[in-house]
Design goal:
about 120 residues; 4-stranded antiparallel β-sheet; about 0% helix; mainly beta
C-alpha cells in the first residue's frame, strides 16, 4: 500500500521540542522532493520546510528552530522542532512535492497529519 504516515505530534510547553516523523511505504521516498506543511483551522495549509536534490527551503517563521532530515535506510523524513511557540500549534503534514522545493512549494501526495499543540 502506497502511503505516508506522520507521527510524533503531541502537546508541549512553549520552548519545548518535538520530532515529527513521516514514514513512507510502497514507494521510495528518497526519489522525491518532500515537504512539511502545517494547517490551522480557517487558514490555508502552508509549506514550512522542503528538501529535494540540492534544495532546502525553509519558511522564515521556523528558520533556526525547525530542521528537516532524511533517513534513506528507513525510508522516512523527519522534522525536528525546537523552541516551539504557541503559534506553531497546527496539524502537520508531509507530502511529496513533484514540482520541486523552490518558492512556494506545493504538496501532491499527502499523509494524514499529526496534531502539534504548544501550550502552557
Amino acid at each position: 500500500q502506497v502511503q505516508l504516515v506522520e507521527s510524533g505530534g503531541g502537546v508541549v510547553q512553549p520552548g519545548g521540542s518535538l520530532r515529527l516523523s513521516c514514514q513512507a511505504s510502497g514507494f521510495t521516498l528518497d526519489r522525491h522532493a518532500v515537504g512539511w506543511f502545517r494547517q490551522t483551522p480557517g487558514k490555508e495549509r502552508e509549506g514550512i520546510s522542503c528538501s529535494g536534490g540540492d534544495t532546502l527551503n525553509t519558511h522564515p517563521s521556523v528558520k533556526g528552530r525547525f530542521t528537516f532530515s532524511r533517513d534513506t535506510a528507513k525510508n522516512a523524513v523527519y522534522l525536528q522542532m525546537n523552541n516551539l511557540k504557541p503559534e506553531d500549534t497546527a496539524v502537520y503534514f508531509c507530502a511529496t512535492v513533484p514540482s520541486g522545493c523552490g518558492g512556494r512549494f506545493q504538496g501532491y501526495f499527502w499523509g494524514q497529519g499529526t496534531q502539534v499543540t504548544v501550550s502552557s
